[in-house]
Amino acid sequence: MKTAGKVKEIITDLLKLDMDKFYICEIKEPKSKRSLEQNKLLWKLIHRIAKETYQDDMDVYCAVLERADALSDYVITATDMGEALRKTFRGAKFVRMQEVNGKDCYIFKVYLGSSKMNTAEMTELIEITMQVCGELGIDTREEWYGDC
Prior knowledge:
Number of strands: 3
Distance between the termini: 43 Å
Oligomer: single chain
Radius of gyration: 21 Å
Structural class: alpha+beta
Order of helices and strands: HHHEHEEHH
Shape: flat
Helix content: 40-55%
CATH class: Mainly Alpha
Number of helices: 6
């Protein structure tokens, strides 16, 4: 059973359970996730930057994540696993090739992507992406204000 709500609502739901059975219950406050509208705006802006700079959307995505100082780590992988790694981590930036234990390997910088961000973090990422647009002379009024 999954339940959500105010304490009284949750207690009402819990009282419906069989009192003779053992249960594990986890209670936590919900996090505000980024909105679908924020996601749509971010990817519109990323696509505009990519088109203007003749780059791939994912390269631009990694660049704005890096500029936003998003949480990241480094991963070493076999050379034949590079594409699989990029599919696993949407934000994966190739850093260099390196020999490890006599074998060629790739080193990638992987980012905690926007799908894991809350609305405040996503707002900051959008603002940084809009700064990049401004630096490139990309007009963002249409994306920002929509059909107003």
